[in-house]
Design brief:
Order of helices and strands: EEEHHH
Largest sheet: 3 strands, mixed
Number of helices: 3
Distance between the termini: 21 Å
Strand content: 5-15%
Radius of gyration: 17 Å
Structural class: mainly alpha
Length: 135
């Protein structure tokens, strides 16, 4: 999540459709302002990508295929996150030198919006954020 002028939104990768609550990078950026926005967007997202990588390495159950009933998946994820945070609190740093590379990226998917107005409002919000970033 990111704060922008008192409002909160999610930052998603380019595989998702843009909306007012989910801001994605420009693809492809067409000018310097859009490139700077994408760089800022990427720097914000890298923090959570590192967290995902650390937790997935510590708990292989969170890899590509979680082999539990679908209704139990949220509990498994929360348990892994809690145990990871406890381990970090106790000084058990696991894979602290994690680097993002092509193998660690989340698979991108295309998400279609049923309401075309949602995409337009998201694009408007992203342009507003870009002006803020480029001040």
């Amino acid at each position: 999540m990111s704060r922008f002028d008192g409002r909160v939104c999610l930052l998603g990768d380019s595989g998702y459709g843009i909306s007012p609550w989910l801001i994605t990078p420009f693809k492809p950026p067409t000018n310097e302002a859009e490139r700077r926005f994408n760089l800022c967007h990427s720097r914000e997202r890298v923090v959570i990508e590192r967290c995902f990588g650390q937790i997935k390495r510590r708990f292989p159950i969170l890899g590509n295929c979680v082999r539990v009933a679908s209704e139990k998946v949220p509990k498994v994820v929360v348990c892994c996150a809690v145990l990871h945070n406890i381990a970090k609190y106790l000084g058990d740093v696991y894979d602290d030198n994690f680097e993002i590379n092509g193998d660690d990226e989340i698979e991108e998917i295309d998400v279609q919006h049923e309401n075309p107005g949602t995409t337009g409002r998201g694009a408007d919000k992203r342009r507003e954020m870009m002006l803020f970033v480029n001040q």
